[in-house]
Amino acid sequence: MNLIILKLILAHILGDFFLQPQKWVKDKEKKKLKSKWLYIHIAIHIALMFLLVWDFSYWLLILLIGTSHFIIDALKLLLQKKKTKRFYFFADQILHIAAIFLLAIAMYYEDIAPSLSISTSALLLIICLVFLTTPTSIIMRTIFTKWDISKYTEDNESLKDAGKYIGILERLLVFIFIIVGHWEAVGFLITAKSVFRFGDLTSTKERKLTEYILIGTLISFGIAIIVSLLFLNLKSYV
């Protein structure tokens, strides 16, 4: 996997998940192509790609990726309905990554070369770590739009965004444990979380909330394990 492609993927993750506030997303869904945030979002993506690649000779590739990003986002906004938001969210992300690969390979099949001293394996590690934070949280939130558990949690006292940060920390720990070869620590982490979380749930006797948290925990750990295994298998090729 080439360094340029990895930099473009990192730019996509930063632009789509870290530099796009929720209010921008809501405004785009409401106003669609008339939303100014759609065009600001695309401009940020293009700026990030130029900044990370840091080689103006790739200007045409970057502009084409930016154009493809606009087209994909525009189609998503025009086609998605409330019931199909989850489908279009994942389709949107898959198409963005595919566009980066296809355009980069089509234009620079032979001579895509690294433009900075950072190694490809180090950049792959950064991408995996970044993906396991906010992007995975957003993916999980999108998956769970299928269920509404607000009535089961409205009386529960909890720190603001505590669940989000717990999920991020557990995924990063799972990733670190696996890449350094300590799978037993993953089992310990699962056990420790079960003791704390499910002990509280049994006192409330809320079966649906218990199932919700169990599914979330398994998905969170599952994504972290998959990303870890992908990193271990891909790092020898980059």
UniProtKB/TrEMBL annotation:
The keyword Plastid is annotated on this UniProt entry: no
Name of this chain's protein: DUF3307 domain-containing protein
Keyword Transmembrane helix listed: yes
Residue spans crossing the bilayer: 37-54, 60-79, 86-109, 121-144, 172-192, 212-232
Pfam families, sorted: DUF3307
UniProt-listed InterPro entries: Phage_phiKZ_Orf197
Keywords associated with the record: Membrane, Transmembrane, Transmembrane helix
Superkingdom of origin organism: Bacteria
